[in-house]
C-alpha cells in the first residue's frame, strides 16, 4: 500500500510499476494518439525496466565505439527506436527479446558505419618520400589477377555460391561452416560465442558433412578439379 | 571399400586446418586415398577455405578484434534486417539460404550474428522486476520530441488517405475515361493554343468513386515543380484535397496529396520525389 504522504506522481509511478509489460505497452499505444504526455509517462515506465538490458548489450559488446558515436549515443538511439517500434512488438515473444534485437541491430549499424568511415582514413606517412625513388605504389605488385585466373575465380565463386546455398539452411549452418569447417575453431569456442551447446556444434557439423557429400555425389564429383571442370563451358 | 563408421569426422576438419599431429594426419591421408567421398569433401573444404581467404577476412583471436577488419565492401553484406531475420527465423527459406550462404564465408557477418546470440542470451535471462530502474536518456527524449514535432509522427488526416479500394477504382476509372480525357485535352489545346504539357485534365469523382466530370487545370510557372491553375477561376475546389497518381518508369506508382488553394495546386510534394516521375494523373474527390 502506498504511504499516505506519497504525492500523486509517486502513487502513479507505483501503480505503473505493478503493471505487466503488456498492460503498459497497451496503455502506451492507446495514449499515443490522444495524450502524448501520458504516452511518455508509460514509455518511461516501460524503459525504466529495460535500461539495464540495453546498457548491458551495448557496453558489454567488447567493441569500442568512437568518440563521435559513443555507447551513450547508441543507447539513446535504441530508446528512440523502441519508442517508434513498440507497436510492432509481437506479444508471443518477450519484450526483453524485442528490445535486445533493436539494441543489437543499432549496435551493428554503428559498427558498420565506423567500419565504412575507417576505410576512408588515409594512411599518414611519417618520412618525406624520396622523389627519385619509385613510390610504394610503383613497387607494389599488381593485385589484378590474369584474365584466366579471374575467370577461374569467378567459376569457383559460382560453384561455392550454389553449393553453400543448397547446404546452409539457417544461421547455425552458416556459422558452423564459417567457424568450424573453414575457421577450424573448436566447438567450445563456438558454443560460447553463439550460445549453442557443444553437442549441437558437432551435430550440425556432421549434418553439414553429410549434405556436402550428398551434393557432390549427386553431381558425380570426386575432386576439386572435377568440380571446376563440371561447370566450364563445353564440359 | 571403406566402412561408413571409419570415415573421419572431426579429425578430417582438423587435418584440413593443419591442427593434427603427424601420426594422426598420416592416418587421414591414408583414408583419403581410399575414400572418394572424403577426398571430394576435402577438396570442397579446401576450396571454401581459399574462397574465404580471397574474401579477405583475416581471422583474429579476440572476440571482436577483427570486426572492422573485413575488406569486403559494405554493399555486398546482407542488410541488418536480413541478418536479424535470419537469426530470429523471420526469413523465407530462399532468403535464409542466401544469407546463411553469405555468413558461411564472411567473418564479419558471422561476428554480427554472434552479437545477436549474445544479446538474446542476456534478454532471456533478464528479469526486469529485479533490475535497477533506469531512465530514458535525455538525448533519446530529445529525439522523440523532434520526431513527434515533425510531420512523420502524425497520422495523415482521413481525407488525405486513399483506401486500397478507392485507388483500384481510380485506376479502373482512368482506363475507362482515357479517351474522354484525351479528347477534352485536345479540344482545349486547339481552342486556346496552349502547349500540350500545360493542359492538365483533373478527374472529379465522388467519395464512392463514381465519375462526376473532368476539370481542366493549366500548368503555370512557380514553385519547384510548377502550379496547376483551375481554368474557370470559380474557387469551386478551394481547400479540397487533390490526389496525384504519379507513375515512374522503374518503380511502382505513388499517390501524392496536395490541397487546392485559390484555384491553384502547388506541386510541392511531387518536386521532393527522389526520382523523376514519368507522368501524373490528378483526382479531386467532391461530394
Mind explaining what this structure looks like?
The complex is a heterodimer of chains A (235) and B (287). With 235 residues, chain A is mainly α. Chain A has helices spanning 8-17, 21-32, 36-59, 71-85, 95-119, 136-139, 147-167, 171-182, 187-194, 198-218, 224-229. The longest helix of chain A has 25 residues, at 95-119. Chain A starts with 7 loop residues before the first helix and ends in a 6-residue tail after the last helix. Residues 1-5 and 120-127 of chain A have low confidence and may be disordered. Chain B is an alpha+beta fold. Chain B has nine helices and seven strands; from the N terminus they run H-H-H-H-H-H-H-H-E-E-E-E-E-E-H-E. Chain B has helices at residues 10-16, 22-34, 36-54, 80-88, 93-105, 107-124, 138-149, 164-192, 268-271, and strands at residues 199-205, 211-220, 227-230, 241-247, 254-261, 264-266, 279-285. Chain B has a seven-stranded mixed barrel. In chain B, a hairpin with a 6-residue loop joins strand 4 (241-247) and strand 5. In chain B, helix 2 (22-34) packs across helix 3 (36-54), helix 4 crosses helix 5 (93-105) and helix 5 (93-105) crosses helix 6. Chain B starts with 9 loop residues before the first helix and ends with a strand. At the A-B interface, helix 3, helix 4, helix 5, helix 7 and helix 8 of A face helix 1, helix 3, helix 4, helix 5 and helix 6 of B.
Mean pLDDT of chain A: 81
Approximate shape of chain A = elongated
Structural class of chain A: mainly alpha
Say how many strands of chain B there are.
7
Largest sheet of chain A: none
Q: Structural class, judged by helices and strands of chain B?
A: alpha+beta
Helix content of chain B: 40-55%
Strand content of chain B: 15-25%
**Biggest interface, residues from each chain:** A-B, 92 and 87 residues
Cα end-to-end separation of chain A: 83 Å
Radius of gyration of chain B: 32 Å
Low-confidence stretches of chain A: 1-5, 120-127
The best one-word shape of chain B is elongated
What does the largest sheet of chain B look like? 7 strands, mixed, barrel
What sequence of helices (H) and strands (E) makes up the elements of chain A? Answer: HHHHHHHHHHH
Biggest sheet of chain B: strands side by side, in what order?
Answer: 1-2-3-6-5-4-7
